[in-house]
Amino acid sequence: QVQLVESGGGLVQPGGSLRLSCTAPASIFKYNNMGWFRQAPGKEREWVATTYISGRTNIADSVKGRFTSSKDSAKDTVYLQMNSLKSEDTAVYYCVTAGIWGQGIQVTVSS
Question: Fewer Cβ atoms within 10 A, N terminus or C terminus of the chain?
Answer without folding.
Answer: N
